[in-house]
Amino acid sequence: ESVVTWLCGRALEGPGLIGFEVGEPPARLRKALSLKLRTLAGVGAPSRAHGATQLAVVGPEASARLAVAGQLARALAPEAGLYLVELGKAIGQGTLREELAEAVRGSVLTGAVVAITGFDDLEHPEAAIEATHRAFDALPVPRVWLTRQAEPSSLRVSPAQLVSMGYPSRAQRLETWRLWLGDRPPELALQLAGGFLLSEAQIALAVEEATARSESREPSEEALILAARSQAATGLGTLARPEETKVELEQVVLGAETRTLLDELLAYAQHRDALVAEWGFGDTLSYGLGVTALFVGPPGTGKTLAAGAIAKALGKELYRVDLAQLVSKYIGETEKHLAEVFDAAQQGEVMLLFDETDSLFGKRTEVKSSVDRYANLEVNYLLQRIERFEGVVVLTTNHEKGIDEAFARRIRFRIEFDAPDAEARRRLWRALLPAQVPLAPEVDLDLLAERYELSGGHIKEVALRAASLAKAAGTAVQQQQLLRSAEAEYRKLGKLSLVQRTPRFEDKR
Fold first, then answer.
1. Disulfide: which of 113, 184, 404, 501 matches 73 by Cβ 3.0-4.6 Å?
2. Angle at 263 between CA 232 and CA 167, to 5 degrees
């Protein structure tokens, strides 16, 4: 049908043929893109695979990759436009073969450049990519691959055919926020630029979403932060997620030595640029000026909470790395994921958190098989990458002995989070029971703090459990409910309570 339409002199139409209605690339990329187009014009034969020009646009989601593809298409086919193929969607609908065939016909008839996307999240993207190659290789169909991966595999493109996008820097994000916020206070743009790793397109979407949800034409600060956080949730794909940081460092209950070390970490992070520029440390340290910290301590002692407080004090967004998505069974994939995370974090000036890090930063072993060799390669890559990382990264663990010793030199701050003593537990009980919770007159938090050696995380569980019992009974929180919940938490932890039980808990024999 498309061939007949074309022979009759009518313009082709369809969901895949999108012309040039794809927006403009960000201003920060236009110069680099112009240079890339001139380079491609001079590359000649090496830029062609099977008679057709192939390019790859590499960048995060919502980073105007399609707009860059449109700019490239204007250079390659000024009169035609783009033909979009979403591989993941086509596979889900069972129409992959038909959509590829339609894209081939549309490109051959009109000269359109085919933009291929939606394969990064497929379980086996290589099969879909190979099917695309088979469909296109018979005819000289120019194509642009849109991908998140720093080094796209199976795409048959050389480094000269890659267009890397990445995230805008903090200064570039600040400029974009100011443009969209107009005459709003400059402090708001500064807070949003430092707090969220967003592309220009995501910033625009966040402002539009906040405006749409606001009753007035000017969205509130809370609405803007909420919308920005929603957009940031897709910032690093599935590799890292933004963590909400509500707690100030002063609110975290910590020992004196731990607090002192955290203050030192904060002082270094805030003044390291001045140390380099004014006091000459840049001449003696060619690299390794990043803020790297290892938080060590038993579960529930506030390691993750302290990381969030540090991020808030620095005005940075905290991204927790998802180790389940980061580590891959395929050789080399874990290193690619790590490179993507570190590059995005350094360019976007956000803070990284590796929780339960001993599973990733484990000790290297004697090489007895190829598995040992590749496992050691991952650790070696991490050692090099974390040493050259210029941003802020916090690692937490409750099993320090499992971490490779070579990390000790690369870690600038090692901070121990001890189990709280009785005085700290008293403060934790008062801090973790919200002011709105009604307490019965006989509730004795000091007694609970003395009797049960629990960390902050476990105290929070006890308080929540007792509050749910009180809510179900329709009463204020009773001392017996708190005792019962504390006993249950002790049993869960495998601890033995030697406290004399109240008659309510005695066996009736």
1. 113
2. 25
